[in-house]
From TrEMBL:
A GO cellular-component term linked to this record: extracellular space
Family membership noted in the UniProt record: Belongs to the peptidase M14 family.
Identification of the protein by name: Peptidase M14 domain-containing protein
UniProtKB keywords: Carboxypeptidase, Hydrolase, Metal-binding, Metalloprotease, Protease, Signal, Zinc
Extent of the signal sequence: 1-26
Listed Pfam families: Peptidase_M14 (PF00246)
Active site: residue positions: E300
Example GO biological process: proteolysis
Annotated ranges, domain Peptidase M14: 37-334
MF GO annotations: metallocarboxypeptidase activity; zinc ion binding
Cofactor(s) the protein requires to work: Zn(2+)
UniProt superkingdom: Eukaryota
Length: 367
């Protein structure tokens, strides 16, 4: 073999080894995470840490409170660029047995990260808005539901109420400072809708309150994810109070339900809690609307009761896919309205006018 051919072969082998090395590195860096399985709290925490490492400068873990059992409540901030922006809030897992909810928050994060560099609309939205996403708010409850099968349907926090130690837990979604203690709650600690010793008695509700209050002028949209029932709920839970922009909320909600239906044909019902579910008070959605966040919605994901809170894992993917389109529809509306961007329909009409005008101008000399 001539010297030069041997040289070329050596170079080829080296190049081959080099690219193998790169492939190896890539594989190391890729999250090997199954989004269509339910995950333990430890797995979700590990996933958050992994994302922060892989998307440095874009994903940040932000601790913003403590649970009763002293877990650190954290959210993922997704932010491109450093200037101050408007923001979207999403929380999952305020009710611990609703396992599809944390699964959805994780899928939502993945979709944003997978698309913001290639999807023009997502890129534009990320240039104007940050996302604050809490995958599991009621961490103590969530850990408890995983502990053994008898605890699977635990809903509340894990703090002792004020009726002795026979019954633990407060319904965190009845504990916010929004018409607290008026309707749809119980003063009995053993109840599933026990609203706590007083408003904001629970550290988890305090954490959301102080974080969101600190960003009340940035957060335009507050989405809180539950299951089940296939509903998009609007403020307020109190039947005698109406949100000033209820008509707009209704039409944004209906558009989201249509976007959901287009994915797998599932029907979601839109309305205020008292109209389509039941009256309640002290919910985070109502509180967020009361402090002036204009667009606040509760999603109740699949199903309609066949499996209820124990939605089988083979439904995680379709549920996430459709709910993603619903959330994206709302966020797009909020973004376009906030930043005065004409929506697709009016852009089309404007384009048609431009074409007609151009035709007229160019054909004018012929007349
Ligand atoms: C949480 O931490 C505080 C301070 O260290 C401690 O006093 C308290 O007992 C802890 N609570 C639980 C439930 O472990
Ligand atoms: C499950 O957890 C409950 C509550 O902590 C406990 O009372 C029960 O003994 C546990 N069951 C098993 C099988 O570990
Ligand atoms: C709503 O108003 C009606 C009529 O005034 C009253 O009867 C009802 O008790 C009110 N509901 C609540 C939950 O306050
Ligand atoms: Zn719920």
């Amino acid at each position: 073999m001539s010297q030069s051919i041997r040289g070329i072969l050596v170079l080829l082998v080296l190049a081959g080894l080099g690219s193998l090395g790169r492939v190896g590195k890539c594989a190391e860096h890729r999250v090997n995470y199954d989004y269509f399985k339910y995950h333990t709290m430890a797995e979700i925490t590990g996933w958050m840490e992994q994302l922060e490492k892989e998307h440095q400068g874009v994903v940040t873990i932000v601790p913003y409170g403590q649970t009763y059992e002293n877990r650190s409540i954290t959210l993922l901030k997704i932010s491109v660029g450093s200037e101050k922006k408007k923001a979207i809030w999403m929380d999952c897992g305020i009710h611990s047995r609703e396992w599809i909810s944390p699964a959805f928050c994780q899928y939502f994060v993945k979709q944003i990260l997978d698309t913001y560099q290639t999807d023009e609309k997502m890129k534009q939205m990320l240039s104007n808005m940050d996302f604050y996403i809490t995958p599991v708010l009621n961490m103590d409850g969530y850990v408890y539901t995983w502990q053994n099968i008898t605890n699977r349907l635990w809903r509340k926090s894990r703090s002792p109420g004020n009726c002795g130690d026979s019954c633990m837990g407060t319904d965190l979604n009845r504990n916010f400072d929004a018409n607290w203690g008026t309707v749809g709650v119980s003063r009995n600690c053993c109840s599933e809708v026990y609203n706590g010793a007083k408003e904001l008695s629970e550290t988890e509700a305090q954490a959301v309150t102080s974080f969101v209050l600190g960003k009340r002028n940035e957060i335009m949209c507050f989405l809180t994810i539950h299951s089940y029932g296939q509903l998009i709920l609007l403020p307020y839970g109190h039947p005698n109070v109406s949100a000033p922009n209820i008509d707009e909320l209704m039409s944004v909600g209906v558009a989201a339900a249509e976007a959901i239906k287009n994915v797998h044909g599932m029907s979601y019902t839109v309305g205020t809690s008292p109209n389509v579910l039941y009256p309640n008070s002290g919910s985070s959605r109502d509180w967020a609307r009361l402090i002036g966040i204009p667009y606040t919605f509760t999603f109740e994901l699949r199903d309609k009761g066949e499996h209820g809170f124990k939605l089988p894992e083979d439904q995680i993917q379709p549920t996430c896919e459709e709910a993603y389109e619903g959330a994206r529809s709302i966020i797009t509306y909020v973004h376009d309205k906030t930043f005065n961007i004409p929506n697709a329909a009016s852009t089309l009409i404007a384009t048609i006018w431009m074409v007609l005008l151009t035709l007229c101008l160019t054909s004018a000399p012929l007349l």
